[in-house]
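Take one protein record:
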Amino acid sequence: MLALTRKKGESLVINNNIEVTILDIRGDQVKIGIAAPKEVPVYRKEVYQQIQEENKATMNVGDVSALSGLF
């Protein structure tokens, strides 16, 4: 993990096309802005983890007999 120090209004660039900017700092909360191409998905980590868990659950359904009618 790379740890950086940034002040309000400062940015960092990832992979030449994603810019992360510190918008505001209030107490222990930091507001960030992310500028990325539309094809790059950006999620909060807890949302990303939930999506991954739902995808795994969908893959583990086990009953493929319902799919046989599609072919």
